[in-house]
Structure formats: C-alpha cells, structure tokens
Write a structure and sequence with these properties.
Length: about 270
C-alpha cells in the first residue's frame, strides 16, 4: 500500500496535528485527477493530509499493472487498508510527525465514501468527522454490471475500464466475502448509528452513483449535511489527468471549499477544547 503524507509548512509548536485521510473509489488510485492536488488546498498550518493507494487496487508502477491484485480487492481488504492507515498514524512513526491519532478526518469518494462510513462504525475512536463525495449507499451497487449467476459459475468475471481499455477481473471471492459480511458492511446502518459529523456532497446528475444514494444516506443520518452540486456528475467535472487545481471546473471548487469549511469548523472546536 502506497501512502503520501503532506505536512503543513508551519504547525503550532508543541501541538499534535489533526490529519485528513482521502480514500479513493473503485477503479481509483491516489494519482487520479484531482487527488494528487488536494494538498494544495486542504493542507493548512493546522492540518495534514494523507492520500493512499489501496493495497489491492491494481496499481503498481503504472495504471492497473497488477490486475491479479485487483481481482481480489474485497470490501474487507479495503477496510483493513483504512485500519492500517489509522494504525500507522497512531504508531511511533506517526507520532514522529506529530500526527494526532484521535483527530482523524476521513474524506471518501464513491466506494471510498461508503468505506469511510462503515469504518466509522467499526472503529469510531479513529474517526473525528467525515466528508463523502458521490458516495455509494450499498456495496451491491458495484455488482449491478455483472451477472451474479455467471460469476458463481465461472468464478471470475470481467468489467471494462473505458479509460484504459482494459477488461479487469473480479474473483468470486469478492462476492463471497461480501455475502458473508453483508450486515457488517451495511453503509446505511453505519450512517444510522454514527454520531460523527458528516458532510455529504453529491452531483445531481451523477452517472455512476445516482443522487438517490446521497438522499438515502442523509435520511439514515439525521444530523448529516447534504450539499447538492447541481447538474454535475460523478467527478464534478474533473477528468484525468488534471494538471493543477487552477484548471478544475468551478463546480469542483464548490466541493473543495465546502469540504475545507466543514473541516475547519471542527478544527476550531478542537483548538478551543
């Protein structure tokens, strides 16, 4: 698992630094589109940022050059990756960077948003608050493009990646692991039970995860804040590659600014405590 840590140039002396962790989605990676530029806007003198590749996302030295790893990228594996990041922050090495293990903000896009919610239910002590962008409300959303019966029969199915033109394998172990843990992996149940601050941001014209997903999560988590980005799709107008944030569409800046404002509001509470 590859991790990038972005630290503030000047942090309060003697203070532990709250940290935000960005979790990419299905068929995503830490160098896609807007992700490698997030630190330019979200890192402040009072907050660090971590971005990372999931251990089984299939990306090694180049785009999806480890498809056999991708074939076994289960929900449980991704949640273990989030746990590994949190444990690293709490480790002696993380403390060496003055990171605060009890003040972790989680930002997730698409499946990453669903992961963040479930993780908050499983490990609430490692979650300060959450921001989810275009998040799924059910992991079964990811199985809609394949025939379950064919998957069970052949033990492996393939999904097409329109950007890379690859047919990407999914092993039946992914489906089996989900079925065995379906109640544990309920995104909406996690949303119902969380008491953590939650900001939901979703494009009304999302072509990959329908806007109703955001509404379902908001209905489940009554204290959540739902921000609709009108007429925008799954990546809020950003395409890969993105040279720098200055070339991002104004709608994505709306996402960034609201995310930063939400995080800074909770940081003010922290420094006042």
């Amino acid at each position: 698992m590859t991790v990038d840590l972005f630290l503030p140039e000047m942090a309060p002396i003697g203070e532990k630094i709250p940290v935000s962790v960005f979790c990419h989605g299905f068929k995503g990676f830490k160098d896609w589109g807007f992700i490698p530029h997030l630190h330019d806007y979200l890192v402040t003198e009072k907050r660090a940022l971590i971005t990372f590749n999931h251990s089984h996302n299939g990306v090694g030295k180049s785009d999806f050059d480890q498809l056999e790893m991708f074939a076994h990228n289960s929900v449980g594996q991704e949640l273990r990756d989030l746990e590994s990041v949190a444990r690293w922050i709490a480790s002696e090495e993380g403390e060496g960077y003055h990171l605060h293990p009890e003040k972790i903000d989680w930002i997730g896009h698409s499946r990453g948003g669903g992961n963040v919610l479930v993780f908050s239910h499983l490990f609430p002590d490692w979650v300060r608050n959450m921001v989810i962008w275009a998040a799924i409300d059910n992991y079964e959303h990811l199985f809609k493009s394949v025939s379950i019966e064919q998957w069970k029969k052949d033990k492996r199915v393939f999904i097409h990646n329109a950007r890379t033109k690859q047919d990407m394998p999914l092993d039946i172990s992914i489906f089996n692991e989900y079925e065995q843990n379906k109640s544990r992996y309920s995104i909406l149940e996690a949303a119902r039970k969380t008491d953590k601050p939650l900001l939901i941001i979703h494009g009304t014209d999302d072509e990959s995860v329908p806007y109703t997903s955001a509404e379902n999560i908001a209905n489940a988590c009554q204290h959540a804040v739902l921000l609709s980005i009108q007429d925008q799709g799954h990546t809020f107008g950003v395409q890969h590659p993105l040279e720098h944030l200055g070339k991002a569409p104004i709608e994505f800046w709306d996402v960034l600014e609201n995310t930063k404002e939400f995080l800074e509001d909770t940081l003010e509470d922290y420094y006042l405590d």
